[in-house]
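Re-running the complex after MR caught last week's input typo. The corrected sequence lines follow. Everything else is unchanged.
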Amino acid sequence: MLILNRKSEEEIYIETPQGRITLKVIGIDGKAVKLGIDAPKSFPIYREELYRQVNIENRESVIKKDAIGELSHLFGNTQTKK
Amino acid sequence: MTIQTNVGEIQIEENDIVFFSQGLPGFETLSKFAIIALEDTKPIQWLVSLEDQEVSLPVIDPWIVRFDYHLDIPKNIIDYLAITNQEKVFILSIVRIPGNQPKAMTVNLAAPIIINLENNQALQYIPEKSDYTLRHLVKEELERTKKMTQEKNGDG
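Corrected-run output:
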């Protein structure tokens, strides 16, 4: 991992084929660092813990082999009728 | 083509393939998926990987479990998926079925899958803030939907 020291108001540029990502230290308050991010507008940006929760959720959702037999008519008769 | 999956052997046409260019969270190296409807598990459909036969996830139309579900797709996601026609957008929620307890089934309404049907580009949208959570009990949602639609229709 590249480690850089930055003070408040200082920035880092990350150049990508789709454009520049700018990370700016907006301010530091105790242990909390406020970051400003400028990225090409189509870049999704996530807080790591939020992404990690979804990651865990998705991996828990994977169906095991041969488990599908137990899943017939999950919704009973109420939802499947059209 | 025919592919092997944990939900069985499946026939897929080239047009059925949806592309997650960043992969799915948890499966970042997988980008090619297909959405399969199986008669036995309706209304649950299956998001199956074409690259890893162990990876098949149950998915459902979120409006089936929550009839008043709402989702605002922000500009960066519209640009990311190159969406030009809002009517060509398909939304699915991932379902989690805890082992041997289909009754404990939950649905992720906070982070839905968004597919642009015009180019088959997809991503799982993880909003910074949502009115929903990653785990809504499907049973409770169905009861709520049933109750609210009955009230709407003036029953009782």
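None of the earlier attempt is carried over here. The first helix of chain A runs from residue 48 to 61. Confidence is low (pLDDT under 50) at residues 77-82 of chain A.
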